[in-house]
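Subject: ATP-binding protein structure
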Amino acid sequence: MQHRLAIDDHPSPQVQRACQPDSAAQARDFARGFAALLCPEPSALTTQNLLLLVSELVANALRHAGAVTALRLRADRERIEVCVEDPSPTPPQERRPDLTGSHGGFGWPMVHTLAVEVAVLPGTGGGKTVQAVLAR
């Protein structure tokens, strides 16, 4: 049985975990497990939004940058932070959504709708980190 990660059990009021997923499905599984370990556990809606956010950011990094160098999740009493690192310095670009479904364009606006904060930060080694924060 895994110990739940109660925020109050830690000297620092933040809990974090990291992985290097090869797919959006792996990233969702990691995020689902992270949310389930938090105490108190996030609401079903917050967990659903976390899974959507992680899935979109990881899928975009894999599609446009070729890899995810790290997926980092952090939580405190008020927020859950998602950081996706990739090897490309090119920031995400908002594109007109393609209603035929063949060229996307829906993900970046969705990230901005779900998150209370979004930032694109320079990464180590020339890549970038896309950071998105959800209210807990």
